[in-house]
Specification:
It is a single chain. 64% of the residues lie in helices and 0% in strands. Helix 1 crosses helix 2 and helix 3 packs antiparallel against helix 6. The protein has six helices and no strands. The protein is globular, with a radius of gyration of 16 Å. The protein is mainly alpha-helical. Its EC number is 2.7.7.6. Keywords: Cytoplasm, DNA-directed RNA polymerase, Nucleotidyltransferase, Transcription, Transferase. DNA-dependent RNA polymerase (RNAP) catalyzes the transcription of DNA into RNA using the four ribonucleoside triphosphates as substrates. This subunit is less well bound than the others. GO terms for molecular function: DNA-directed RNA polymerase activity; nucleotide binding.
Length: 110
C-alpha cells in the first residue's frame, strides 16, 4: 500500500459492494482479496441493490445513514437485535422508534 492514500470514504450496503465487485470482476481478473470480499458479500447479502437503497432511504428519515446501512445489511428480526446494534451508539432510541424501524425492515424482508 505504499503510495496509496484514502481520499474519501462513503458507507455502502453489502448489496452495493456485491454489485461493485461483480462489475469489476467482469472487466478484469479479481485479486485474492476481492475474491474473499466477493465470497463474504455473497454469503451475507440479504437484499438486492434496489431494495437495500429503498430501505436505507426510508430509514434515513428516522436514524443516521450509517445506522440505516448497518440495519439494511443485518436485517434485524426483533427489538433485541436492534438494541444490540445500537448498544454502542450515543443516545438512545425510544421503543416506538425501534418498532417503527422493525416495521420498515419487515416490509423488505424476503
Amino acid at each position: 500500500m505504499i503510495g496509496k492514500k484514502v481520499i474519501e470514504t462513503d458507507p455502502i450496503t453489502i448489496a452495493d459492494a456485491k454489485e461493485m465487485l461483480e462489475e469489476s470482476s467482469e472487466s478484469y481478473e479479481p485479486t485474492y482479496e476481492q475474491n474473499l470480499a466477493m465470497d463474504h458479500v455473497t454469503k451475507f447479502s440479504k437484499l438486492d441493490v434496489e431494495s437495500a437503497q429503498k430501505l436505507v432511504n426510508e430509514l434515513k428519515e428516522i436514524i443516521k445513514i450509517t445506522q440505516a446501512i448497518k440495519i439494511a445489511d443485518v436485517m434485524p428480526v426483533d427489538l433485541a437485535d436492534l438494541r444490540l446494534m445500537f448498544a454502542k451508539e450515543r443516545g438512545s432510541h425510544k421503543k416506538e422508534e425501534l418498532e417503527q424501524i422493525l416495521e420498515i425492515v419487515n416490509k423488505y424482508r424476503k
